[in-house]
Amino acid sequence: MRGFFIRLIGNKNQEEFKPETIQTVYIVGGRMGDIIVKTPMLEALSKLNKNLKIDIEVIKGGEYLVQNIPYINEVLVKNSYLKKSRFKRILDSLKFSLKNRGKYDLYFDFTNNSRFFHILSLKILSPKYLIGIHRLEKFGIRKDELTIFDKYVEVNSDAHAVDINMDFLEPLGLKGESTKYKLYLGQNEEKFKEYFDKNRINIVINHRASTEKRSFNYAELKEILIKLSKIDFKVKLYLASMPNEYEKLKIVVEELDIENIQLLMKTDTIGEFAGIIKYCDLVLSVDTGVVHIASVYDKPLVGVYPFSENSYKLFAPRSSRYEVVRGTKEGYTIEGFSVDEIVEKTRAFIGEMNRL
Question: Domain count of the chain?
Fold first, then answer.
């Protein structure tokens, strides 16, 4: 029965696919890391035609990464879906679709589900063209059966997120475009050019991910800081913080009372933080958007990732020089990672820098 209703709303009479007629596009950008891995796609898409208007939806805070992009028409800011019930998410989706019905020529659906309310939202939104991933074969529905999608994209399960995003552009005839990340920081572009001591090796450390399971706890963080501080007198460690954690981390740094450990200045936006990362020498971070900011500026990077192989393949660093430490417990967690492995991989980078 569920399959019947999904088919009922998930099919349409398709018209000839003409990319040259596309004028308005809507893209769900998501959170910080999702936005950055979409920047090559956004830049390539902007070349489709000179009159193209791209609107992008981001989770609150992410607007500071896209507001200065010259080819973005409008940034729509939404609160994190993680704090919403399923009913509220469905309701918000339906309300958005009703409000913007027929407004867009092109919509990209990055999900692969065939849930009734998701397909209904797309039906109500009624973009001229809809490009999506092959559907999960559920409720008796084949992966490419729903004709509401004008074009389907085949996704390689081993592909990086940036490559998956670029695959969505192939139906538009946009191939071979650069996959290099790019940020436009506006006034923050050179604001922190003199922030770091050029006579030291300046390392920014980010311990916080979107979940506790992917973050360093304070005991782990202290151990890492103490061991890294002893590697070389030229090393200066800067501990990054979320604004709401700044005072707690200030106490951590004061308790350690080590000369070459400092709390990074308090930033108000992710745009400011990216402006700081641009001028540091090395980044140590758990698996989060900070890894991708470091990759924008090709910073040497030590990334700490969950055990999950799919997670790592999808969001692996894109810097030309990086090392990865993985958790050892099953699931989307960094639990079981080795502090000593982090220290040794960081030490190797510091050794390279000292030889330059």
Answer: 2
Residue 168: which residues within 8 A CB-CB, separation 6 or more?
41, 108, 110, 131, 153
State the CATH number of the domain containing residue 6: 3.40.50.2000
**Residues sharing a CB contact under 8 Å with residue 171, sequence separation 6 or more, in sequence order:** 17, 19, 131, 150, 151, 153
Residues 47 and 100 in one domain: yes
Proportion of the chain in helix, strand, coil states, percent, rounded to 5:
40, 15, 45
Q: Which amino acid is at 146?
A: L
Q: What is residue 309's predicted lDDT score, i.e. its pLDDT? A: 87
User: Which segments in the chain show pLDDT lower than 50?
Assistant: none
Residues 351 and 203 in one domain: yes
The last residue of one of the domains, among 172, 198, 233, is 172
CB of 106 within 8 A of CB of 131? Answer: yes
Q: Residue 99: which of 124, 123, 120, 77 has the closest Cα?
A: 124
pLDDT at position 83, please?
Answer: 64
Q: Over the stretch 326-344, which tens digit does the pLDDT of each residue have? A: 999 998 999 999 999 999 9
**pTM for this prediction:** 0.93
* Nearest CA among 242, 193, 188 for reference residue 32: 242
Half-sphere exposure of 251 (CA within 13 A, CB side): 4
Among residues 172, 197, 220, which one ends one of the domains? 172
Q: Which domain holds residue 197?
A: 186-355
Mean per-residue pLDDT over the chain, rounded: 93
Residue 177, domain member (yes or no): no
